[in-house]
Design a protein that fits this description.
The structure is a homodimer.
Chain A (H helix, E strand, L loop, with lengths): L2 H6 L3 H9 L7 H21 L11 H36 L6 H18 L1 H23 L5 H26 L5 H34 L2
């Protein structure tokens, strides 16, 4: 059975058990990716509850594009659950390399640095993609079925949590990295993602509060 | 196959497909409950990565109690996924009741009001329980394995999102309720949950930022 098939057959309960257990994976990185994909699924839901509904035809073309994008983000975020696990295992493997001789020490150190840099990719992808999902939530709140407002709102909450979860999971690895240029560049990018995400989330929450209170 | 067994066998992919699809359930209410249970699972993970570890014995008894509580919240939140679906379907069924005669109109209206009140229970439970999970996150950040700080942080993000998701899902139903005393009481309770949740989340984020930066 391929890794892909195995993942596809994981039940919700099994996934939760695997998170709760005493191994380091799947952990916060994988859960963040899942949270982002749940946000994307809620965007799709709102679009599907809007398309073809009487009185809500105005944005059909735009909504179909949102549906496609959200579906693509959902799939890539789901794939990130497994990528995060693999990247973390590579870091662990690097730390387990022998360090008896000077040469071994050097090889091990280089392997650790390389694996740590690579381990930033999945959570960074989660943060970047969840910001895109958050923007789609904002669009469906403006253009989608008003009866699905709470679904879009929960999508935004999950996408925002996923963005921050991705950021935290990059940050914890940066402290062990020696390439200060890489670290500074990454920190700057993470701050940009956080700032933009928080700004959009606050706009969304204000809009949702307004719409729910006027119901 | 009982409903309980069916739920246990749902794969992650199937659940996401069901959310994304064009039916009103599972929606934001169920996703919020799942987000809360993911937060609880991450609390369990941090405890399991702490118990038995050298140098981290100080809080063993307290951590075991946290583990039990988090596991219980995880199970009850998972059960809420299905309860939210059932409650929503009862609201839909009430709206579908016949309304030809005055008597039918009266019966239908009473059934709608009753089902709407009942539909507040699952998301309110999600909000209340996710606040408890958030408090457990704060405890494991103080007492748990510092290497699992990002896992506890993601747990807090998910629990906070679940709390707000629960609140939104109660709020959207309140507007159609005629029992103003019930509505006011509920709104007050929701505000209390939001305020306490946000206060604790902000404390957690400050502490996590501090711990990650000092690594």
């Amino acid at each position: 059975m391929s890794q892909e098939e195995k993942k596809d057959e994981t039940t919700v309960t099994q996934f939760l058990d695997a998170v709760a257990g005493g191994s380091a994976t799947p952990g916060g990185g994988s859960v963040s990716a899942l949270a982002g994909s749940l946000g994307a699924a809620l965007v799709e839901m709102v679009v599907n509850l809007t398309l073809g509904k009487k009185g809500l035809e105005a944005h059909e073309a735009g909504l179909k594009k949102i549906l496609e994008e959200a579906n693509s983000h959902r799939q890539s975020l789901i794939a990130t659950i497994e990528k995060d696990i693999t990247a973390y295992q590579e870091v662990m493997n690097a730390y387990l390399l022998p360090r008896a001789s000077e040469e071994e020490k050097k090889t091990r150190k280089e392997a650790i640095q390389k694996s740590l840099k690579k381990a930033a990719d999945p959570p960074l992808f989660t943060a970047v993609t969840s910001l895109k999902v958050l923007k789609l939530c904002q669009e469906v709140i403006a253009k989608g079925n008003p009866n699905a407002i709470s679904d879009a709102a929960v999508g935004a909450l999950l996408a925002h949590a996923a963005l921050y979860g991705g950021v935290f999971n990059v940050l914890v690895n940066l402290s062990a990295l020696e390439d200060k240029h890489f670290v500074e560049k990454m920190k700057k990018e993470l701050r940009r993602l956080e700032d933009e995400g928080t700004r959009i989330k606050e706009q969304i929450m204000a809009k949702v509060g307004e719409k729910i209170n006027s119901k």
